Amino acid sequence: MNILALTHIRRVFADDSKNQVPALKDISLTVDKGEYVAIMGESGAGKTTLLNIIATLDKATSGNIMLNGVDLNKLPEKQTAKFRREHLGFVFQNFNLLDTFNNRDNIFLPLVLAKTKYTVMQQRLQPLAKQLEIGDLLERYPYEISGGQKQRVAAARALITQPDLVLADEPTGALDSHNTEKLLQLFEKVNLQGQTILMVTHSAAAASHSKRTLFIKDGQIYHEIFKGDHSRAEYLQKIMTSLAALTSKER
Ligand SMILES: Nc1ncnc2c1ncn2[C@@H]1O[C@H](COP(=O)(O)OP(=O)(O)OP(=O)(O)O)[C@@H](O)[C@H]1O
């Protein structure tokens, strides 16, 4: 069953001199429930534009987009924030935690906005905090913890609503190798538990934790590869070969 379906999505921006910039030309893709998809491509290929449209932060110029049976083109403007909160989880490169709230309240924020009972919030947090190794950090503030810890708090905030889809934009971009590995292992684990994940990354190593990698070039899907029965090392090799082809001047 697919949770996300994009059909012939185009996004054209008008730049300062009113020139048309076709950021996405004709994107069709589906993501099944329980998939873990990485999106790669050179700078300017259209990855963020694509993520913003899926995140309901931007609207396509044309084409259809369905998320869990909801036509996002028809979602009234007033309902987008609520829809985002209830159906999507976000993990960003720069964490986006609020320094005025402690870590527990940062994690609870989407549930507070959804008027969830405190006991339910606590019940959901307990196993997550254990899995993410942040149990001892909940009373501290974001500015009192490390980057890796911040990203695990942000992951808890994304996962606590049990969203249909987690959207991750360069989630390991600001992390050292140890914390990168830790976060990627966590993503793999929650994906095995059924969480659907879509992750934009510039890192082939990060993409090799996914089950499928999509390559975008000039606003179009250029190629996709599946992990299938390959080992992580073999999958990584395939990703790197595809990336080399993607970035070579002849193509
Ligand atoms: N608001 C905008 N107005 C005009 N052009 C835009 C706008 N946003 C993006 N673009 C253009 O659309 C294209 C795709 O941009 P996008 O940010 O999606 O690329 P990206 O693949 O995410 O790049 P990066 O890896 O550098 O973040 C680029 O040519 C960019 O300059």
Short note summarizing the structure:
Keywords: Amino-acid transport, ATP-binding, Nucleotide-binding, Transport. With 251 residues, the protein is of the alpha/beta class.
Q: Would you kindly provide a written description of the structure presented here, covering whatever features stand out?
A:
The chain is of the alpha/beta class. It has helices at about 45-55, 80-85, 105-115, 120-130, 145-160, 175-190, 205, 230-245; strands at about 1-15, 20-30, 35-40, 60-65, 70, 90, 165-170, 195-200, 210-215, 220-225. The protein has one domain: Rossmann fold. The protein is about 35% helix and about 25% strand. The chain has a six-stranded mixed sheet with strand order 6-7-8-3-9-10, with helices on both faces. The chain has a four-stranded antiparallel sheet with strand order 2-1-4-5, covered by helices on one side. The chain is globular, with a radius of gyration of 18 Å. The mean pLDDT is about 95. Adenosine-5'-triphosphate binds near residues 13, 41, 44 and 47.
